[in-house]
What does this fold into?
Amino acid sequence: MMKIDILSLFPEMFDGFLNTSIIKRAIDSSLVEVVIHDFREYADNKHKKVDDYPYGGGQGMVLMCQPIIDCLKDIVTKESLVILMSPQGKTLEQSYSQKLSLEKHLVIICGHYEGFDERIRDYVDVELSIGDYVLTGGELASMVVCDSVIRLLDGAIKDISHEDDSFSAGLLEYPQYTRPYEYDGNSVPDVLMSGHHENIRKWRLKQSLLKTYHKRPDLLKKKDLSQEELKILQEIQKND
Ligand code: ADE
It folds into this structure.
C-alpha cells in the first residue's frame, strides 16, 4: 500500500477530494492511505505562529522552518520521497506521475503566503510545480499530484489500461464515441462500427497523431516515433 502524508495549514481543503469517486474508492480498498498534517500544530510558540516577516525587508510573510521541519521529523523515514509544491519546481508530467506511483511513501509539503524560509529546501528531495502560474497555496497543486498518481495504482481504475491515456505514449488520446449512433445529424465514424480490430487500431493511431500534430506539435518533437507512426505522420504533413 502506498502512503501519502501531506503537510498543510488548510486540511479542510482536502475533504471533498478524499471523499469522492475514484480517490475515495482507492482509500477504502487500501490501495493508498492519505494523512493530512496541520503543521500549525507543530509551532513551538504560544500563538501557533507559522510565518514571519522576511529578513532584509520586503512584502509579505515567509513560512518559518521550525513547524514544517519538526513535522517532517515525525513523518519522514528512509523510504520517503519528500516533495515541495512550488511554482519554482519542475513541471509535473505523466511520465513523472508514473514514477511517483511506484514509490512507497510520498510526503508533500504545501506552502502558503509569499514563500518559505530557504532552509526548508534542505529537507526536500523534489520540488514540483503543476504549471507556470501561481496559486494561493500548494494544496490544489498537491491534490493534482495525488490524483494523477493514485489513479495509476494497480486496481484504482477497474479494467482500464493506462496505456491509452493521453501522454502515456507521448500522444494525445484518439476520439471516443458512445451511444447514440447519430446525434444532431452527426454519426459515429464507420470504422468503429465495423468490428475490424486492425482497422480500428490503425484509425485510432492516425487520429491520435492528427490530434497531437494540430494541438500539441511540441509532443511530437519529444517522441520516438515508430516506423508506422512516422509513415502516417508524413502523410498528415503532406495533406496539411
Ligand atoms: N504553489 C503555488 N503555485 C504553485 C504551482 N503552480 N505549482 C505547485 N505549487 C504551487
